[in-house]
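User: structure tokens for this one?
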Amino acid sequence: MSIFKVNDMTCGHCEKAIREELTRGDVRVKVEVNLKDKLVTVDNLPDDRVLFLLREVGYSPELC
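Assistant:
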């Protein structure tokens, strides 16, 4: 399990976009989004892949 800080995540649309991008239909990937604290927790996806995917959709994630 890895936790990422995504300061530019601001709304429900952001949450949905992040979930969809990280899971892409893969039921093994688990994503939890805490919009208030701007944290994204991801299971079963390598950290470098998460960082890449989040940057691809326009966010600036940091590994916590």
